[in-house]
Amino acid sequence: MTRHETSLAYAARIERVMSHIADHLDDRLELDDLSDIACFSPYHFHRVFVAVTGETVAEAVRRLRLHRAAVELNRSQHALVRIATRAGYGSVAAFTRAFAASYGSPPAAYRRAGQDLRPVLQPSGSQAMTRATALRSTLHYDVTIETVPKLRLATLPHRGDYQKIGVSFERLLAWAGGHGLLRPGVRMIGIYYDDPDSKPLAELRSEAGLAVPEDSPLAPAMAWREVGGGPVARLVHKGPYADLDIAYAYLYHSWLPHSGRQPGEAPCFEEYLNDPRSAPPSEWLTAVNLPLK
Predict the structure, then answer these.
(1) Which of 99, 110, 193, 273 could form a disulfide with 285, with the two C-beta atoms 3.0–4.6 Å apart?
(2) DSSP assignment letter at 252
(3) How far apart are CA 161 and CA 157, in angstroms?
(4) Are 100 and 106 contacting, i.e. CB atoms less than 8 angstroms apart?
């Protein structure tokens, strides 16, 4: 087997492991079991995993569980003890320390802040606060209109909850690593076709994308897509991906109606400006792009 073939084989094996981890976050994830999935000896599996992904298994599991916890804090009224237990912590105190270290605030404060910022429609009537007014009174993003050059992406489809597209990105990054395409500055972009309030979560369509050379050999289920090539309304969100719905609500309900512009025919896309594996969620930067006519 050539070096290139070996690299591809390693990437495919680690891709299977990452998919298994994402699908079994509630289970005990033992290294021996994961090494069996990867078809590596347990004596060597973890070193290969770190070499391919840039993080340990424990770090990957912790990152994915804390992301799920952030989504639960935003979407549900579940007790902190339940969320802490699902995230793999034996006490709320331990969960609080870990969450605050990654997300910049304790989980209870994070939940309160999300409730304060998320737009809500008050009961109808002359005194009712509209969604746009509520947003303008609580937060502000700088929105710029830019012309984005056309960019060709190798993409992998994702069907379902947008907050779980990370699984497709993990697979895409494993593919790119196996082909030696993960060079400094590689652009990582998500394409989102549906309004998440318009249909059940299971039916949402999106794609994980990487800007790679056009002669890159695509794996099965992958496709080439293009984004850009015209004007976009662009804002940069700083913070966890679980809070991106706030940025979209501001863009559509506060900025767009007063902008004098109309949305174009292409779907929204996000560009992830730093590496979520090397920066805490409180420092993640995401450029949200709304194509315009």
Answers:
(1) 273
(2) I
(3) 12
(4) yes
Residue 138 carries which side chain, given as an amino acid letter?
A: T
Task: Name the residue type at position 234.
Answer: R
pLDDT band at 8 (very low <50, low <70, confident <90, very high): confident
Tell how far CA 240 is from the center of its chain: 9
Six token digits for residue 172? 């895409």
| DSSP codes of every residue in 215-228 | TPPPPTT-EEEEE-
- What tokens appear for 30 in the block? 């033992």
Residue 227, judged by CB atoms within 10 A of its CB (0-12, 13-18, 19+), counts as buried
Alpha helices in the chain (DSSP H): 3-23, 31-38, 45-53, 57-75, 80-86, 92-103, 107-117, 131-138, 166-178, 244-249
Q: Residue 245 has what DSSP assignment?
A: H
Residues in the chain: 293
In single-letter form, the type of residue at position 206 comes to S
CB 174 within 8 A of CB 140: no
Q: What is the pLDDT of residues 172-188, one digit of tens each?
A: 988 898 888 888 889 99
Instruction: State the residue for tokens 């902190």.
Output: 80
